[in-house]
Write a structure and sequence with these properties.
With about 200 residues, this protein is mainly β. The protein has three helices and twelve strands; from the N terminus they run βββββαββββββαβα. β7 and β8 form a beta hairpin.
Length: about 200
């Protein structure tokens, strides 16, 4: 489990494309603290460290993961938001994030103000996922609060710290992002008969 509080950037150093899978080699500030078989959220996608070599580590994405995320767009040099899983004695600063991305969304508009930003997103209409005003949403692994919610659209407000310390500050209009909707909302929708 994760909380959506980003620890550091990882950088893609190498991409190995196999027949169906894609393996990524990344560097990050805490690579010497990682171990094989450890779960790590990459732009909100829970991936398992399967190899560590020198100052890099490897994770592998299979077709199911690739079909629901934007990982297929990663290339050498891509900066990725990283979060290690929550420890049993850790502080719960964000919201419940599973690292199970629901769908890819698209940044449709960016509004820049004096010292904050408003990002607008849309996601496929063929999904039944919902956002709720003042509810939680996870974008590229970042725990955020929904400002406005519409049908297959929502917006979030970004403070300077988040803009500078996550890759949300590197988005442009048209950028694709990983979305994980609030798990509590998904269970409520399921109980009320809405398939998600």
């Amino acid at each position: 489990m994760f909380t959506g509080i980003i620890e550091a950037f990882g950088q893609v150093e190498k991409v190995d494309r196999q027949v169906e899978n894609i393996s990524f080699w990344l560097s990050c500030p805490f690579v010497n603290e990682l171990k094989v078989d450890q779960s790590l959220a990459h732009d909100g996608v829970c991936l398992t460290v399967d190899k560590i070599q020198d100052s890099t580590y490897r994770v592998t994405a299979i077709p199911e993961t690739l079909s629901r995320t934007n990982l297929d767009n990663w290339s050498v040099g891509t900066l990725v938001n990283l979060e290690r899983c929550l420890s049993a004695h850790g502080r719960f600063d964000g919201h419940i994030v599973q690292g199970h991305v629901d769908t890819v969304g698209r940044c449709s508009r960016i509004e820049s103000y004096e010292n904050n930003w408003r990002l607008f997103f849309e996601y496929p209409t063929n999904t039944k996922h919902i956002s709720v005003e003042k509810g939680s949403i996870c974008i590229n692994g970042v725990s955020l609060t929904v400002v406005d919610s519409g049908e297959n659209t929502f917006s979030v407000a970004i403070i300077p710290y988040t803009w500078e310390h996550t890759n949300l500050g590197k988005l442009s209009e048209g950028s694709f992002v990983n979305l994980e909707f609030d798990v509590i909302g998904k269970y409520v929708a399921k109980m009320l008969g809405q398939q998600v």
